[in-house]
Structure formats: C-alpha cells, structure tokens
Write a structure and sequence with these properties.
By secondary structure, the protein is an alpha+beta fold. Helix content is 63%, strand content 14%. It has a four-stranded antiparallel barrel with strand order 1-2-3-4.
C-alpha cells in the first residue's frame, strides 16, 4: 500500500473528509445559533439553562426542520462519511470478495432512509435529491476499493486494469464529497446559524414580569403546565407565558449580513 493510499484509508477510518466539520456543525453551530439569535453569549447561557443543557440538540434539530438545504447536505455528508468509515474497516478484501450486487444493495439502504426523513419534512424532490447524491457518493467509495485505488484490491490482485471512466467517476465522487463536507456544509450551517430566524416556535403570550400583564412575543424554550417558558424578544429575558398563540413571523433579529 502506497503512502497516499495509507493516508486515504486512515482519513476514512477517522470518518472521511470533513469529519471535523461534522463535529463542529453538531456541537458548535447550535450554540452559535442561540448566541446570535438571542443577542449574545449571556443570553444564550440563560436560555440554555431554561431549556436544560441536555436539550440543546433541539436547536440543531430545529435548524434542520426549518432549513431544507442544510438538512439535505448534512444527510448526504453523513451518509458518505459513515460508508467510507465502515468500508475502511473492511478494506479491499471485503469489497473484492463480496458480490457486487450485494454491495450495491447494502449501499442504498442508508440513502433511502435519509431520503424518507428529508422528504417527509421538506418535500418529495428534496428526498429524491438526497437519495441520488448520497448513493452516487457511496458508489464512488465502492469503485475506489473494487478497482484497488484505496489499497490492494481485486483488480490489482488479478492484474487487470480498472476502467478509465470508473477511475474518473471515482475521482469526481471523491472531489464532490470533499467539497460538500469541507466547504458547502459549513457555509450553509453558518448562514443558518446567523440568519436571525428562530429554531423553534415563536409564540405570542400573556406575560407578567411585575409591571402588569402584557402581550409579548416569545421564543419557546419549553412547555410548563398550561403555558410556556420562553425568551421574551423585547424584554430580553426568560419569562413564563400564558394563553399563547403561534406567531406567523419566526424572525427574532436581523441576519448578520444586514446588521
């Protein structure tokens, strides 16, 4: 195995291209979303305590439910990354000894699963796009191992030369995966974090903070009895709201690029 092939397989065992970006999106972007949307780190801390730290993944889930492009790109990157990881653990021997039809069927299961989830929330065509792109990138990994491009595989062992168009297809899939994970995903995630839109419901409730009852717009942080615990957008604090109704406007503050 050449140094390049060893490095490529080592990267796959770590999660493939963009694995660090994936971790950043999952752990850091929700915190940035809180901080920008509510107005700063102190506000984000108050909101996080109110909604309980164990529930902070709800912020990411809310972003995915509100942003079809982010959900689709993340699904594609996770699909390709997970397949590259398990392929690296098995290596060329597994890909060479397993019938190609079995590999093709195996590779389609996760893309279809993600497609169903994305399609259910964002529409048929988003689901179809996720399925096609995810499957194409997974096929690129299969080609790399079947043609021996990642390590000594079936074609090299038998002395045959891999098809030129297959090599080109594998290269294209690899570049596409790298761009999606290393450039497209972080840009979309950052835009979604600072767009000023709420990750959860914005509700209009009766609020009493000691100055009399008034109607206020709240970012819903949690349910409590017959009311909600929310962030008062105008009052800039965590409050309890009663007699709530959903607001049609989910904008909390202006996007970063307009501020």
């Amino acid at each position: 195995m050449s140094d390049k092939e060893r490095k490529e397989r080592s990267e796959d065992l770590k999660g493939g291209p963009g694995h660090i970006v994936l971790l950043a999106v999952v752990f850091a972007v929700p915190v940035l979303k809180l901080a920008w949307t509510l107005g700063g780190g102190g506000e984000a801390s108050e909101a996080l305590v109110a909604m309980e730290p164990s529930n902070w993944p709800d912020v990411l889930i809310g972003m995915l439910l509100n942003n079809a492009l982010l959900a689709s790109v993340l699904a594609v990157v996770v699909s390709r990354t997970s397949y590259a990881y398990f392929a690296a653990k098995g290596g060329a021997r597994v890909h060479a000894d397993t019938p190609i039809t079995h590999l093709l069927v195996q590779a389609v299961i996760v893309p279809l699963t993600f497609a169903l989830v994305v399609g259910a929330f964002h529409g048929l065509w988003w689901g179809v796009a996720v399925a096609l792109v995810s499957y194409a990138l997974r096929l690129g990994v299969i080609v790399e191992y079947r043609t021996g491009r990642r390590e000594r595989g079936s074609d090299r062992r038998t002395g045959t030369s891999p098809s030129g168009w297959l090599e080109h297809a594998a290269d294209t899939a690899g570049v596409a995966a790298l761009l999606l994970a290393g450039a497209v995903l972080p840009v979309i995630a950052l835009i979604g974090a600072v767009d000023g839109r709420s990750w959860t419901s914005v509700v209009e409730c009766d609020v009493n903070t000691g100055r009399g009852e008034e109607r206020a717009r709240l970012v819903e942080l949690g349910r409590q009895g017959n009311g909600v615990v929310g962030w008062d957008i105008e009052g800039d604090e965590v409050v309890n709201g009663l007699n709530c109704g959903v607001s049609e406007d989910d904008a909390v503050r202006v996007p970063l690029w307009r501020s």
